[in-house]
Amino acid sequence: MHVSVTWGYEVFLSFRGPETRLTIADCLYESMIRAGIRAFKDDPELRAGEEIGGSLLQAINDSKIYIPIFSKGYASSKWCLRELTHMMGCIKRRTIDEDEKVILPVFYDVDADDVKLKTELYRKALRKHGSNSGKNLAKQWEEALREVATIKGWNLKDHGLHKLTNLMVQEVSSLLWTRRTDISDHFVGIKDQKEEIIKLLDRGASDVQYIVIHGMGGIGKTSLAEAVFREISPQFQGYCCFLKDIRTHDILNLQKKLLSDILDLNCTNLFDINEGANMIKRRFRTKEVLIVLDDIDKLNQIKKLAGEPIWFSEGSRIIITTRNIEFLVTEDEDDNVPASRFGKISFYEMSEMDPNDALQLLCEHALGCAKPPPDYLGISCELIYALGRLPLALEIIGSTLHGKCRRTWEDILQQLKKAMNQDVKNKLMRSYEELNPVQQHIYLDIACFFINQDKITAIKYWDAVFGYPTEIEVKSLTQKSLIKIINDDKLWMHDQLRDLGRDIVCLESCKTLRSGCRLWSPKDAFHVVQRKKIAEQLKVLKLVDCPSLKKTPKFFRISRLERLILMRCTQLSMIDESINNLQHLDHLEVERAIINSLPESIGGLKSLSKLSIVECFNFEKLPDSIGQLESLLELHINYSNIRELPDSIGNLERLKVLCIKISKLENLPNSMGRLHSLLELNVSSSEIKSLPDCIGSLKMLKEVHLNATNISELPKTIGMLENLEELNAISCYHLEGEIQSEIGALSSLQILKLSHGNFSRLPTTINQLTNLQELHLFCCDWIQHLPELPQSLIVLHFSLKSLTTIPDLSNLTNLVDLDMRGTPMQEPNIKWLVKLCALRKLALLVGDMTLPTTDLSSLSQIQELKISCFEWRSLIGLPSNLRSLTLRDVQTPINWSLFSSLENLSELCYFGYQLGEIRFNVLGKLTKLSALRMRECPLLKTLPVLPFFQDIRDLDLLKLPQLIEIQGLEELKSLQRLSIWHCDSIKRLTKTALSNLQNLNSLDFTGCKLLETVPDVPYAKPSCHIKIFGCPRIRNFEGPYRSYRDR
Description:
- The structure is a single chain.
- The chain is α/β, with parallel strands linked by helices.
- The protein has a 24-stranded mixed β-sheet. Strands 1, 2, 3, 4, 5 and 6 form a 6-stranded parallel β-sheet that branches. Strands 8-9-10-7-11 form a 5-stranded parallel β-sheet, sandwiched between helices.
- The longest helix is centred in the first third of the chain and has 19 residues.
- The N terminus is likely disordered.
């Protein structure tokens, strides 16, 4: 992430050579050089001429700090006086855009009074200069001397030479550190990361600390370490060393460099790495050092260069960069737990480059400027996304494009869409080559098939392939920065690493003279199918979006196939009978085809563990042979027309998951009672009316999902499911009367969801569910009374609408989430709320009924509150630690004083605000507020959002039909998301409304009937997304803002 730069001098030393060259001048100069300070030292006695010029003039002009060393003969030197006068002039002439310059006088063997011309010492020299050089020049020199003498300086006799030198270097280092501006100018996109690293280094702490910067190859770890090193190295008085590319160097030579850089030792007689390690340990013990160990890949490298904290003095900092943290974490611990031998250690994972920074980096290398011209903006954005915003790739491609015409840019973009750049591939290939064969296999599988796929499912597949638990291999790939585990436990891989894997597979395919063992490209895979040139080594075949495929090929020649995936082959109506030839097939998935059944021969797939038929709306039946799938663990048939299951399904003794969702299924066969391994049964959104009594035989069953079915009652045998943990029967409108008392025997039940049901009673046996943690009873509007509930409950949601009384729930002391909503039949008594000390989330929504006088201030642990405010006077206190507050049905003026203690509030939502104006000026103390949401506020015409919400990041306005103005929107400089929905009176925002919103990521205008135009967003990021929908006066659009503006 570098941009080339020539470094100027930082410090200028002015001195009289004969008196100070071999003493303080040399000591100061050498000490500053060792501290990494760029100092200029010249010898005035060797100069000729009468004017300052050339390199001397440049050195003075460039320097930020001037150090004149006043000795007895200083004023007798015309050159010293010329330098001093020019230095004082530079300080006076500094423009507003230049860095501040500082002068630090040193009084060597004179006093300040001598320089102030209060003694004869310097006055005599000036009289002589007046005679020889003219009175005007002598007068300028006199003024410079008098002026500099007023500045507090350093006197040698107060400190001694050694101490004075150290103090001066510390002062200079500190001044330079606070004035550094070069780092951000020449390292693109790492300012925020650099600040995070410096924060982690915690220079205020006295202990020795290690920090590990890790991430995939080419992501900028070394550049970040260099930027941090340059910024903080002046604080270590020269005891600094940056060991680059350690992986490619001999340890002994690295030890010699380390000793040389820190101690200035010439270690020609060092021949043994153990001796080198011992020398580092002995000699560095009293030194506060800064060491960077770049590109580490083995533990022994750290052991021999910076083995333990006790090797170094307090305050030392060791920075390590690596692609692989596997050798740094302790076995059987979490991924980010460091090995204890390194004392205090912090991990910092490199993140993807911001799109704006990626654009700048590409342009710096390709165009020599920070931003592309308008006609290059579109293709530049395409390039940065094609390269996955990887700094290494951006630098390589940017340099390749330097000086090239637009046509070349387009050609290279097309090449990148087909194959990755060879130089980038060579850099990343090392990570692949260091993997063991199993890890390489898994890496290639993920690159071709498993990106954004469920990790657990993939691991089950690899377990079957390799015959042992492979989660440790997946963990290793994560620690090596080759994959990540993202939301919902999905596998993720950077685009460039994905392309590397697919290139490797393509190369392997070419070597075999046939198709390879993996096909993922729809074009390639379909081509193979059509021409019947299917390789015998093919293990995975994935066909996606192949509209011409009506029937699968015969499967005789691909007998080694392990996974067959047919997605969005919308004309596929038949799977060939020869599928039973696939004796190694483990996974069969068909999605969005028009097949109505599977061939009878499917029963011959003895290795099949997962069968998935999804969104095949013509699918009507399973063959009887399904019962012969002796290895089947999961059966998924979702969005189908299936009406019944064959009795043979009871033969699937190993089946663990049976999921038949959104179907015409009317009943389950009695043979299901033989599915003794079943863990999960899901028949949600089917037409099932009852469960067979044999379900009681499924002793291993943990989850039952009956949502939106026609079931009218639960079977009495349900109480026999001793391992059942979750029962979902949401929106079962035929479930009437009393819920069966047998559920009280479900001793393992943790979650019970019965919302949107028409039953009228819960059994009293519910209090026997001593492990129940969640009970959901929303919109159960026939329940008049709640029985005693188990004290184990953590989450309780229920409707108040039909309850004759609200029960006293003070015994539920474990409740964390309590949600009560609906207009009760009488004024609710909620005094018991204050006893729920574990409560974190509370919703108390009673419609237009007035709450009794309620003080919630004692419930300081609550972080999220939703409450009805029909009459504000009833609410006299709010929890002080609230993070999120929703006020509903506000009918009377708000008592704003209640907000004075909400210093931690980050989200504020008004829902159903019925007044014509709103005052935010009293909310100035809400300094952490980041989200403001206004919904269904029918009378509000003006929204005064400023100056009270300058740090807000999310502004959401929904159904404000009379809103015509948002005041001060342009001042919300932190705003990231602006959403305006169904605000029918707003015609336009002011021209400058979005002018300062540099952090805006998302703009959404939906259903605004009178909206005529969207103002410019001059700072919009390439990633800024705009959506315009249902606004009749503006054409619909969804996509990048810049594309919208350029259209």
